[in-house]
Write a structure and sequence with these properties.
Layout (H helix, E strand, L loop, with lengths): L1 H45 L3 E4 L3 E5 L7 E5 L4 E3 L12 E3 L5 E4 L3 E3 L12 E2 L3 E5 L3 E5 L2 E6 L3 E4 L2 E2 L3 E6 L2 E6 L4 E4 L11 E5 L1 E2 L8 E2 L1 H13 L3 E2 L2 H8 L4 E2 L3 E4 L6 H9 L12 E3 L13 E6 L5 H8 L27 E7 L1 E3 L12 E3 H13 L3 E2 L2 H8 L9 E8 L12 H8 L3 E5 L14 E5 L24 H15 L4 E3 L7 H10 L3 E3 L6 E2 L10 E2 L6 H8 L1
Parallel strand pairs: 17-22, 17-24, 18-19, 20-22, 23-24, 25-29, 25-35, 26-27, 28-29, 29-30, 30-31, 32-33
Antiparallel strand pairs: 1-4, 1-7, 2-3, 2-6, 3-11, 5-6, 8-21, 9-12, 9-16, 10-11, 13-14, 14-15, 25-34
Length: 566
């Protein structure tokens, strides 16, 4: 009996341990599965088609069952991963798309889309490749973002003074020239042997001469560009092409355009073309194309105007020289206003730069004016007893405070550059003082001192302190800086300008570009008037902050001048 009880106890003890073992086994299996599940879920939280580096991370290569370090990635750099199905906890290394490299899962975090730098499809790689026997460091926006710790040889897409630019990881990087060896290789693609530089004449609704163009004629030319599969490039791309650090596919056009209305900007965008206004290049309007041996201070340029024919357009597309004869003038001169009449409309004229051709001075800008032509205009005003207004006289008239003779005109000059001051040629002030005629200079007061323009015949008003900058704002006329700056930035600039000029009477919008915020800011700091473009006479019915002006060009004839002021 006692033995029986002892046997039962042994069995029970055995059964207990058996049961404990079974429970432990299945419990452990459950634990392992749960752990595997959580680990897989943790890995999945780090995976996406696009990821960003959380902190500075390592890059790995797969070698047998190990992952040796092959490089480094900087924090916040983003890239794409190969598609994988994560089902095991040992899938801790993610493969970088289109490469043989990997990253550890904990080093990255998912994002919606990686930021890739793309290269325009009209670029042709340079006939050059770079290589290194050691580390190769890759830069973006001046910051080092990637290092590969092994020898590499890569083709160069384009270059600048500091970097060679290459494609890697389906991204564009700069590699410092002094850190690699460069060698020439055979070019694989045809490149452009010339680039046609063109500029459009002044827009006018009724134009029959070589000095202007209608919108319809512009559309006709832009359609030819589009049909011929031509493409436009930026100023910096053009300069890079000239100096050989960028190769382009055939068909490149550079449009250099300083006079740009909102209508013209919109029209060009409609056809998918861009244009710029260069401060670095000087142009010669000789209707010839440019090649790589062209110097940047004498760029050949075609001028497109109303008498440009379809045959001329074909020659421009082919980089040929064109000759355009000026037709006989059919201009009808308006009659002079009565000497005793009161003004109901007053012409506001807009000048920019002055030079003296008789002294062998050259100015290749379209809005330059030879002093002999300026003298001719002042002589005409004097002979016909025109009153050249001070800005205060004009302000008082347009606000209805005073009356002025019909033979009145307001002369305005923008910027303060070539020939306008005592420090940069001094063409303007001596002529105003000789003829005792008044004008107003809209000065970029942060660029030049008002001391350079002192004269009793020259008023100084604002053209901003330092906002005469283009290509700063996207989707704005000329990319004018003022149009995308904050109100606080605009107000600060305006107040600085007022402080420098000593006046808040009048303002001139850079590039004739304005928006509601800019006008509101002018009113807030106390400006009474603001001027734009427009090519028609001003009147008391005008918006006081959108007063039109006639731009004066190098090609403006005396007859055209007379029709502006009559």
């Amino acid at each position: 009996m006692r033995k029986l009880k002892k046997g039962v106890k042994v069995c029970l003890f055995f059964l207990f341990f058996l049961l404990f073992g079974v429970i432990s086994y299945f419990g452990y299996q459950y634990y392992l599965k749960e752990k595997e599940f959580k680990q897989v879920e943790e890995i999945r939280l780090h995976y996406a088609s696009s990821v960003m580096v959380r902190n500075d991370a390592k890059i790995y290569q797969s070698l047998d069952s190990s992952y040796p370090i092959i490089g480094n990635l900087a924090k916040d750099y983003s890239f794409d991963l190969e598609e994988i199905e994560i089902s095991k906890s040992n899938q801790t290394y993610f493969k970088i798309k289109d490469s043989s490299y990997y990253v550890f899962y904990e080093d990255v975090t998912p994002i919606d889309k990686s930021e890739r730098k793309t290269i325009p499809d009209y670029y042709v790689p340079l006939s050059k490749e770079i290589s290194t026997l050691g580390d190769m460091n890759f830069f973006q926006d001046g910051e080092e973002v990637l290092t590969i710790l092994q020898p590499l040889t890569l083709s160069v897409l384009y270059a600048d003074e500091i970097f060679y630019y290459v494609s890697y990881f389906e991204d564009i990087f700069g590699v410092k020239k002094d850190e690699v060896e460069a060698s020439e290789k055979e070019p694989l693609e045809e490149e452009a042997s010339f680039v046609s530089v063109i500029s459009f004449a002044e827009e006018k609704s009724d134009c029959k001469s070589n000095s202007c163009i209608t919108v319809e004629k512009e559309k006709e030319f832009l359609k030819v560009l589009s049909d011929q599969k031509k493409y436009t490039i930026s100023e910096m791309e053009y300069i890079s092409w000239l100096n050989g650090t960028l190769r382009l596919k055939p068909g490149a056009i550079y449009i250099e355009q300083k006079d740009s209305s909102e209508q013209r900007v919109s029209l060009f965008q409609e056809y998918g073309f861009l244009f710029g206004s260069s401060e670095l290049l000087k142009f010669v309007d000789n209707n010839q194309t440019t090649k790589k041996d062209t110097k940047i201070d004498s760029i050949n340029r075609y001028v497109i105007h109303q008498n440009t024919t379809e045959e001329h357009m074909k020659k421009i597309m082919n980089g040929e020289t064109i000759v355009i004869e000026n037709p006989k003038s059919t201009t009808v001169i308006k009659g002079l206003p009565d000497i005793n009449a009161k003004a109901t409309h007053i012409a506001v004229l807009n000048y920019h730069f002055f030079y003296n051709s008789e002294a062998q001075e050259v100015c290749n800008e379209g809005n330059c004016l030879d002093v002999k032509n300026f003298r001719e205009q002042l002589e005409y005003l004097k002979k016909n007893q025109y009153k050249t207004l001070t800005m205060e006289e004009y302000r008082a008239w347009i606000y209805g405070e005073i009356e002025l003779p019909a033979r009145s005109v307001l002369l305005t000059i923008d910027d303060g550059a070539m020939g306008t001051g005592k420090h940069n040629g001094n063409k303007l002030i001596p002529l105003l003082e000789e003829y005792q005629m008044h004008a107003t200079l809209f000065l970029i007061s942060g660029w030049w001192s008002v001391d350079n323009y002192q004269s009793e015949y020259l008023d100084i008003e604002s053209h901003t302190y330092d906002m005469h900058q283009e290509r700063v704002c996207s989707n704005q006329p000329r990319g004018a800086k003022m149009l995308c700056s904050s109100k606080e930035e605009v107000l600060q600039d305006l107040r600085l300008s007022i402080e420098r000029t000593g006046s808040s009477t009048a303002f001139c919008f850079p590039f004739y570009a304005y928006n509601d915020l800019a006008i509101q800011s002018l009113k807030e700091v106390g400006f009474k008037l603001a001027f734009i473009g427009g090519s028609y006479k001003s009147s008391r019915g005008n918006d006081k902050y959108k007063i039109p002006r006639y731009p004066i060009h190098k090609t403006t004839s005396l007859e055209q001048f007379m029709n502006m002021i009559h």
